[in-house]
Amino acid sequence: MAMNLRLRDDQTEALKLRAEEEGVSMHAILLRAVDDYLARTAHEALVRKAAKAQTAKWAELLERLK
């Protein structure tokens, strides 16, 4: 899927400099950033789901410990 991404001038310049330093394209850096974000938020969602399940499982004990 194609899409447009509008960056501020300072973001564009910083991205361009980073791409030149790393010897990769700006596009490659942005794809890596998206992949990193998706992986991180997927992990956070799993942790939230597990915490919710454990809280429900141990609700009675947790209430008695208050």
UniProtKB/TrEMBL annotation:
InterPro entries, per the entry: Ribbon_hlx_hlx
Highest taxon in the source lineage: Bacteria
Protein name in UniProt: Ribbon-helix-helix protein, CopG family
Species, as recorded: Streptomyces actuosus
